[in-house]
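Dear colleagues,

I hope this message finds you well. In preparation for our joint manuscript, I am sending the Butyrophilin-like protein 2 (Erinaceus europaeus) sequence together with its predicted structure, so that both groups work from identical material. I would be grateful if you could confirm receipt.
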Amino acid sequence: MQPWCVGISTLLLSALLPWPGAGEFRVLGPGAPVIASVGKEAVLPCHLSPETDAEGMEVTWFQMDPPALVHHYAASKDHLEDQSPQYRGRTEFLKENINTGQVALRIHPILPSDDAEYRCYIASPTFENEAEFKLLVTALGTAPKIHIEPGGNGEMKLTCTSRGWYPEPELQWRNLQGQQYLSPVSETKTGAENGLFHVQTSVTVDTRSRNVSCIIRNPVLSEEKEAHVSLAGQCPPVSAS
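The corresponding structure tokens are as follows:
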């Protein structure tokens, strides 16, 4: 291809791509959901493109559903008089790099109720733009425990319990080979006052079964905790991992 052909192609491509005009900008948030653990902190970053000094701009974070004002910054200072009550005392505006258009909001400590869609809104005297992103809140619960109740007809009822999960975890019984075991005869997932889930699942098994495991899995982190028992002969103490 001739050099002048390359130049024309580049010019045409540039003309087709949207680009902010004078004084205009785009607000860009994180490229993937922000994941934060209950009790820890989350940092929600936003930045301007092209790189623009945001010192004199208005910067606001909103929770979208349910709607809530998370943090508001304008005229080079925080304005928290209208901040939603659930965020009071838990937000910090990070502006170390505000002169290059990079801002962020720290939320600490993270609560289950923070799991939501968020909007980062930035406005100059002549232009405004915003970005939306997701905050995924997560918590790993306690190691599960299995309670054994002998039954009739060569059967036993196993009940597995654990506390402190978020979001609602996945429950499963597996055999020695790691294959999914019998469907549970009962399963409950109860939300506690702190927003975390307490879970209980029961299954009836034949005493001729050997090893049975209760698996509780966090769907956000893809991490799981397990308890297992051996039903061969007399049941030894339950172990958990």
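For the figure legend, we might mention the following. The chain has two domains: 25-138, 145-232. The helical segments are 3-16.

With kind regards,
E.M.
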